[in-house]
Amino acid sequence: MREVYIKTPGGYRWPFSKGLLVESMMMAGLKMEPAVSVAHTIEEQLKSRKRPEISAAALKKLLVSEVERSFGPEVAVRLKGQTQAFEDIVVKEGLRRRPFSKGVLARSLEDAGFSMREAQALARAVENRLRRDGVKSIESPELECRIAQEVEELFGPAARARYAGRQALVGEIFVEEAEGEPRVPFSKGVLAQSVMAVGLSPDAAYRMARDVERRLRESGAAVVTRDYLRKLVAEELAEEAGEEVARRYHLLRAIRRTVKPIHLLIGGMAGVGKSVLASALAYRLGITRMISTDAVREILRATIPQGLLPTLYTSSFDSWQALATPQTTEPSPELVMQGFRDQVSRVAVGLRAVQERAAQERTSLVVEGVHVVPGYMSHQHQSEVIQIPMMLVLEDEEIHRNRFFLRDRETGGSRAQGSYLRSFEQIRLIQSHLAELAKGAGIPIIPAANLDSAIEKGLEVIVERLQEVYLEVVQG
User: Fold this and answer.
1) Which CATH number fits domain 262-475: 3.40.50.300, 1.10.1200.30, 3.40.309.10, 3.40.50.20?
2) Is 173 a residue whose pLDDT tops 90?
3) pLDDT tens digits for 215-258?
4) Cβ contacts of residue 38 below 8 Å, gap of 6+?
5) Can you tell me the distance from the alpha carbon of 428 to that of 434, in angstroms, rounded to the nearest whole number?
């Protein structure tokens, strides 16, 4: 059987674990033995359905249903109201978002003076309280307040006072580009985001950022230069992940000081995971502007009548219908590709305008969608940006089909599977065409079967392209 994965809204995938289900049910009041029995039943159901992955929302629905069937509505209501052990809790720090991590919290509590056992007990208690309360997202100050309350409940008012006192005594550290230049506060969140761009997981990135902060505080410096901070980060990366990752970090830091913005172009057919990959890479690179080619198509639909450009008013894989005669019921491969190319050529006009505007504003940009097709993405300001195209391809037909079932469940039917599965042959035909175009143009092809691997491969492509640009700048 293919291993089953749990997929979160943030785009992360974890192997399915009965332990996570058991933990969730015990938080809702079930004993260990019946919880294990229910978890085993659900595991057998997932095995029989042979799903390669299931969304956290769908798994929660299945779990609540099974608990209600076995133990009644009272337990099911408690379970439904809490945030499950397999669901993310998002911590908000201004505009930044990060997943709550019990391990990261425990390590920060150790830094605040608690023993390892005390820190782990506190972190576990904080997480359990958040999940029982059904918290799915929380502002950083509120989380800090909850931690302080948990400290008092477990260790008394004196411990809370000591904890608050230690936090108050921690002075802010500032970073300056060079001596005498304007300073900015050191931020673990910003640092963690920057090192995720070299391939570290969120948990490893925040752990490394915490270690860097600890070293800065141990040094007693209130102000450090940017070069010194980069040196510390590179040392931590080399120790944590190896010299190659540290080299990547140096390269990305150097590239960010160049004058050209990055335009990341991610193509691929429906159901392969383009938007998830685009979001993950944009976050790791710190790119805030992202656009889907479907959004551009919708804008064109609103401004151009259907009679003038009929292929804009269909899905990319059904565009042949706008060109077919009334007698055509089954399209030929040639007609499918003719309709697809016609739609792509229309949408390309809007995409060029978007890219040109971003280039003129010197803004980095991520463009994702089926209309990101080799030969259609060039524009007159292309030399002013670092353009990085890649093509996401899902070779396994069964996984591709299952993606549409999962997307249908996750979106509550707003993106119904039926139309995609009816046109599955056309979707696969166009994907083969896109893969051939990418190979011919020398554009990297990213395997889409595993999201984590796709993100890692995407980062490799980005680093390689930036390295080429950096060498050109240095040699030039």
Assistant:
1) 3.40.50.300
2) no
3) 888 887 778 888 888 889 989 888 888 888 888 787 777 666 65
4) 21, 25, 30, 63, 66, 67, 70
5) 10
